[in-house]
């Protein structure tokens, strides 16, 4: 069995998507494969591979109890084998709780996952995994996400759709609407990786600390999401980016990324995506834009057509 889930970027509505704002989310050309093969022995043998084909995590679980037998983690970065194995076990156990038939066979499985993007890019290594496990287990991916993690669920919507979507949480349920976002000025849009993966859980916790009423801001961000689709010129689009940054900045009490790091950037505008302070930013500009960022040490500069599905 083969499963594939798209990666994600949230172009509008970060943070406020949690409180019902209509947000514009786009699936990426990058994602994650999950391949399941049957074996005779009652074990779940798991291997996670990078985009370059290196195995970075391995684990063996005893079936049908789903007990961790062993795990190894080949990385000098964050986390440990045990932590990652426990996280995976949590997702699998929750999927099994939602569908008791899942992993209840006499034989076992070899599972291999492969990212098609570098792990540190923050394009959804967790959400693509959760979506594919949900497909394999025949359970609702949004519910699996919410039962095992926190988050808005827009990343699950991207994992499942091959077009941009409006995503909204209404009455604690995901509302996904496919939309057309195909700006005539897309050759002026770039995505720049900020060389650090941001923990969205941390960003969400910070946002949750503020218990103010943001009804006006939610309404305006929802309008901006709609206006993104209708923007006829890069100038119009830039105005929306600046306004969006100002609104979120006032809520989470952080300076916009342009003000923080790129105050001398005069070729266009810069907008944070997802949890502020890491992962990718969306940048408008021209053919000089990649050089500007590369000169500042940011080597991953992707054009719209290179990353957006």
Portion of residues in helices?
A: 25-40%
- Low-confidence runs (pLDDT<50, min 5 residues)? none
Largest beta-sheet characterization? 8 strands, mixed
- Give the CATH level 1 class of the largest domain: Alpha Beta
**Integer count of domains:** 2
H and E string:
EEEEEHEHHHEEEHHHHEEHEH
Mean pLDDT: 93
- Given helix and strand content, the structural type is alpha+beta
Number of contiguous helices: 10
What radius of gyration results from the CA coordinates?
Answer: 20 Å
Please give the alpha-carbon distance between the first and last residues.
24 Å
In total, the number of strands is 12
The CATH topology of the largest domain = Ribosomal Protein S5, domain 2
Approximate shape: globular
Strand portion? 25-35%
Would you mind describing this structure in some detail?
It contains ten helices and twelve strands. The chain is an alpha+beta fold. A hairpin with a 4-residue loop joins β4 and β5. The longest helix is centred in the last third of the chain and has 19 residues. The radius of gyration is 20 Å and the shape is globular. The model has no long low-confidence stretch (mean pLDDT 93).
